[in-house]
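Re: the 84-residue chain
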Amino acid sequence: MVERSIVDRDIRVRFPDLTLKGKIMIHVFPLNDSKKHSTNEFECACECRPNVDWVTRIVTHNSFDGRELIEEANELKNKGNLMN
């Protein structure tokens, strides 16, 4: 598979070879996670239970290390919705 990747801070977006004629899935997954994510299959079998949007064909992987929970808590704290 020919791939192009865009790396932004701590996520990676993987674009597969565009010659697969309709079987294109774009995988968005965290970098430096505690386990490796499965990004090779059209029907993603990753253990992180990713969200698959079949309309846009974007697979958004969850982290294994729970970093999105920390990010959400920090956002709530910064908005004043979480007590110190």
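The radius of gyration is 15 Å.
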